[in-house]
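Need the bound structure for fe (ii) ion, inputs here:
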Amino acid sequence: MPYYRSAGSVPPKRHTQHRTPEGGLYYEELMGEEGFSSDSSLLYHVNIPSAVLDVRVWEVGDQSLTPNHPLRPIHLDTHALFPDEESTRGVDAVTGRRLLLGNADVRLAYVVATEPSPYYRNAIGDECLYVEEGRARVETVFGDIDAATGDYVIVPRATTYRVVPEGPVRIYAIEANSHIGPPKRFLSKFGQLLEHAPYCERDLRGPSAPRVVEGTEVEVYVKHRTSAGIVGSVHVLPEHPFDVVGWDGCLYPYAFNISDYEPITGRVHQPPPAHQVFEGQNFVICNFVPRKVDYHPLAIPVPYYHSNVDSDEVMFYCGGDYEARKGSGIGQGSISLHPGGHAHGPQPGAYERSIGAEFFDELAVMVDTFRPLELGEAGLATDDGSYAYSWSGGRRLGGEGGTA
Ligand SMILES: [Fe+2]
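Answer from helper R.:
Posting the output first, comments after.
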């Protein structure tokens, strides 16, 4: 995020002595992307940030993926993963994530958290945590971000943080293997959000003050990659990792609320790129927010049928009343996977019903991936098995059991 911020105490000149009130030195850390050649921040630590007392294995849970074969559009129900209070007891927003879908570029997971997570850093890529419902304080090495319903919280790769829920909080976690940021076409050559972008810097909330915590023998859970796939390690640090008295730069976590997204509308149907909010390597994130719809006198406001020949499309339905999917069983908390190789569009009747509509009260977060997605354990557990037949009115060969 190339938008300069500063919090706490930093020296007037970078890479120079920054003294504690007692005359000691703070330890400067550069946290930078692409080696030393992209966005970065300088953080001033009370303690040496490299110190480690112990390392051990963290079993990250089932990260296995099952191919979508034979090819099907799929409907998952995230809410079925955490059906009641008992199922959320003791669950945190890091170790409690359930893997829905993934590929070599991105993983999509869901959790209903009620307990503070361990201190954590994702060394694989940036995370985008979408808060479907609830509130949480996201404590980071840069300071706190208060997150609530509708917030996207973007956490850069290797940022140490934890999530402290205030009551149950529902989080849709988009874990990249890359960085996540605003689409490049929204940015000036120096990185400012342009006039045609649907949001601007004023809408982004970064940490405004450091969080300094005293502590010893603190565990940090690190998610990382080996040739065997995604693994975890626990680092035991001699002092608390939140010991930064000040930082500045253009790399930091931030939040953006979906209600601050200004939708782009038109006389005829606007394609999903008009609704884009973020992008990572080999995937994009779009959001469909409540908006006036197409106003050509002969407009059909729901989407035309489309064959996304280069991508798989994942919709997370997180609010409102999703007109185009009526009759398919999709509701709040549902996820649809529309894979490349299959043309999809409105369920029967929705095309006709939408004519004359002036406003859609819908809220959905979409991830389009440029490599096929496979099913994680939570995807397999909540696949309704019948969504593929929703466009034929539930008809399938061999009746209910079908051939799929
Ligand atoms: Fe679509």
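Comments: The mean pLDDT is 95. The CA atoms of residues 138 and 145 lie 5 Å apart.
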